[in-house]
Amino acid sequence: MNLLDNVLFVGLPYAAAVTFLIGAIYRYRATGFKYSSLSSQFLEGGGIYIFAVLFHWGILVVFLGHLIAFLFPAATLAWHSDVTRLVADEVVIFTFGLAVLIGLVGLFVRRISSPRIRVVTSKMDIAIELLLIAQVVLGLWIALGYRWGYYWFASDMSPYLWSLWKFNPQIEAVSAMPLVIKAHIVGAFLIVGMIPFTRLVHF
Q1: Residue 35: which residues within 8 A CB-CB, separation 6 or more?
Q2: Cβ of 99: how many Cβ atoms within 10 Å?
């Protein structure tokens, strides 16, 4: 472990959580009924629908996959002790990850190419969409290069995240992870901290 690891895996998570909570509450109190996604689908229909479907369903499944491994690490490890179930779940999550990437790229291209949508797009919206695309690419890279993510997520990432929740950070496992996985973890915390300042706040 070194100073950078402590900054990224101890300081950043708590800073992101505080920023998210304070920023979300402030934005809700300040903007009231404007607390929404300002959906671009009302401004530009057509081909945007399929990309929106791919993104929303894909992100839901991927998020739930991560959430289940976080909340129930022991059950996750037991369930995936059967190699058939492990391979099947890895394929499903990877497929929905690809759906997220296709949807995100399609929505981003539409956002920057449509004058009507650019009017309601902030710099922070652009920044978080680019970060989301990078995050999904990293996730797919990890799925291909560092197989059986359900296992190491449940055995290493889940205890780390729970240690943060208990205000007793244990970062030994994440400090030893490959750079691409570290980047994926840092990206997740950055996204959490940026949410209140973008249209993603509506979720």
Answers
A1: 27, 28, 201, 202
A2: 21
Strand, helix or coil for residue 167: coil
Contact 177, 16 (CB under 8 A): no
Distance between CA atoms of residues 97 and 188, nearest Å:
15
Q: What is the pTM of this model?
A: 0.87
Task: Tell me which residue has tokens 């950043």.
Answer: 12
Q: What letter does residue 47 receive in the DSSP assignment?
A: T
Token pair belonging to 26: 């402030």
In the three-class reduction of DSSP (H, G, I as helix; E, B as strand; rest coil), residue 165 is classed as helix
Token pair 């840092």: residue: 186
pLDDT digits 0-9 by tens, 87-102? 999 999 999 999 999 9
**Are 40 and 111 within 8 A, CB to CB?**
yes
